[in-house]
Structures are given as structure tokens and as C-alpha cells.
Design brief:
This is Prepilin-type N-terminal cleavage/methylation domain-containing protein. The protein is an alpha+beta fold and about 280 residues long. The protein has one domain (about 20-275). About 40% of the residues lie in helices and about 10% in strands. The strands form two sheets. A five-stranded mixed beta sheet has the order 5-1-4-6-7. A hairpin with a 4-residue loop joins strand 6 (about 210-215) and strand 7 (about 220-225). It is globular.
């Protein structure tokens, strides 16, 4: 080998990374990952919330179409038991001819569980399945508690563009929560970790939707509502709702007497959850 060829090979030899340089690169990658992973998680959460709102939009329109076929009257949340024909069943079953897809009654933030009899079968038989879903129906938004839980009539409502009919909710039952009560769902107790009905919409908002509550509104639109959940500083959700009910509303006085009732009785929140003492509000 000539001296010139040896010189060329020596001159083109590459220098390897030092340990310090490798550590710097790894540190930069770790920093970028720490910055970007939460962003990716937020984007994924936002995408699931968008999918949930799409489901709620379809549910809202199904409710409106049902009402159009029944003199502007909404479907009852529960008609007394499993599917037995025109005089029985649950809202999900009554709305099925309008929805045609039971996946729309599920919150996209969690997968739909597999369970026996989870889809309607031939001849209208639903098996043992009745009312599963994690987009639950609001007893206060769809019915009139003060009048024996009769269904609301859309044209009789004062705030159809604000009144919530369905919302994301969670319970310990893997098959979901098909309905929730009237006033108490606006209070969620973080300290006690209450996630059974009636606090299940608060649990869904706090744990899955960045404190926003994906909701279907009576006029047919869907929204991720902000500021609709009150989280008390102590374990007093039930105590505060009972104190207001026993001291005020049961006597026909609808003025606040504690922090929760002051939150609930503001017009925007009240119009969202609906009242149990007036069928038009």
C-alpha cells in the first residue's frame, strides 16, 4: 500500500460520539418527550370528547325526532321494565328506531364493554339487556318530577336551547348508568370520591373530560358544558342538597341557603339541569 493511500484512509476516519454527547442527546429527547407526551394525551382526550359529542348530537336529534312523532312529547326515561312492547321498555329501546346504532349511547372515553344480550335481536327481543350506556338520560331534563315524572313537552319549555337531556356519566357498574336524578348531579364530591348516581355526571366531567360535561340539549345540539359541576370543599354534597331541599324548596322557597344551592340556582346552571318544581323550566 502506498503512503498516499494510507494518508487518505487516516484522514477520512470518523470520530465516535463521546459519552457526554450521548447523554446530552438522551437528555434532550427526554425533555422533548416530557413536553410532548402530555400534549399528545390532551389531543387524544379532546378527540374522544369530540367523538362523545358526536354521539350526543345523534342522541339529541333522535329525541327531537321522537318528539316530533308524538305531539312534541319526549320519551320517558323508564317505562317500567324490560322491553315488552309499546307499553314497556327504556328510553334507549324507544329511541332505537331513530338512532339505529346503540354505540351512540356510550362515552368514547371508555371502551364499550362486552356483555350478554347487548344488542337487539330478531323479533324485537332484547334479551336481558335493558338500559346500558354511559351517556345517561336526565330525569330532570326529559321528565317533570313535580308532576309524577310525566315526559316534558318541548314546545312548553322556556329554555329548550339550554336544558340538558343527556350527559356523560359514570357509575361502578361496567354497563354504565342509563339515567340520573334532577338536582343532585350538579354536585360532585372529590374528597369522598362519590361516583355513584346522583354524582356520576360530576365524576365523568372531573375524571374524563377536563371538568367539562358532554351534553345533549333539548333543541338538538350537543355541547361540552363548563361550570355545571359544583365540587364542595368538604364531604357535604348530600348534606347541602338535603339542607336546601328541606329548608327551602320543600316549602316553595327557591332561594339559596348554602354554597351548593347558590351554584345550582344561578340561571345558567338551573336552566341546564332543569327544575323539579316547575315542568316548564
Amino acid at each position: 500500500m502506498s503512503h498516499s493511500a494510507f494518508s487518505i484512509r487516516v484522514g477520512t476516519a470518523r470520530r465516535a460520539f463521546t459519552l457526554i454527547e450521548l447523554l446530552v442527546v438522551i437528555a434532550i429527547i427526554a425533555i422533548l418527550a416530557a413536553i410532548l407526551f402530555p400534549v399528545f394525551a390532551q389531543a387524544k382526550q379532546a378527540a374522544k370528547r369530540t367523538a362523545t359529542l358526536s354521539n350526543l348530537k345523534q342522541d339529541a336529534l333522535a329525541n327531537v325526532m321522537y318528539a316530533n312523532d308524538f305531539d312534541d312529547t319526549l320519551v320517558l326515561v323508564w317505562l317500567g321494565g324490560p322491553w315488552t312492547g309499546p307499553d314497556g321498555g327504556f328510553a334507549i329501546q324507544k329511541l332505537y328506531p331513530y338512532i339505529k346504532n346503540l354505540d351512540t349511547v356510550w362515552d368514547a372515553s371508555n371502551p364499550i364493554p362486552n356483555f350478554q344480550g347487548g344488542r337487539p335481536m330478531k323479533d324485537g327481543y332484547w334479551g336481558d339487556w335493558t338500559a346500558s350506556g354511559t351517556l345517561g338520560f336526565s330525569n330532570g331534563g326529559m321528565m317533570m318530577p313535580s308532576q309524577g315524572y310525566k315526559p316534558r313537552v318541548i314546545s312548553s319549555q322556556e329554555h329548550p336551547a339550554e336544558l340538558m337531556m343527556m350527559a356523560a356519566c359514570r357509575t361502578s357498574d361496567p354497563q354504565g348508568c342509563f339515567a340520573f336524578t334532577e338536582t343532585q348531579p350538579s354536585c360532585y364530591n372529590k374528597i369522598q370520591g362519590r361516583w355513584e348516581d346522583p354524582q356520576s355526571p360530576g365524576y365523568a366531567a372531573a375524571s374524563y373530560h377536563n371538568n367539562m360535561l358532554p351534553s345533549a340539549i333539548m333543541d338538538g345540539h350537543a355541547v361540552a358544558a363548563k361550570g355545571m359541576i359544583y365540587s364542595p370543599p368538604a364531604n357535604d354534597c348530600d348534606a347541602q342538597t338535603f339542607a336546601w331541599w328541606s329548608g327551602k324548596s320543600s316549602k316553595g322557597d327557591y332561594t339559596p341557603n348554602n354554597e351548593w344551592s347558590a351554584h345550582y340556582l344561578t340561571p345558567r346552571v338551573l336552566n341546564f339541569w332543569g327544575t323539579w318544581w316547575d315542568g316548564t323550566k
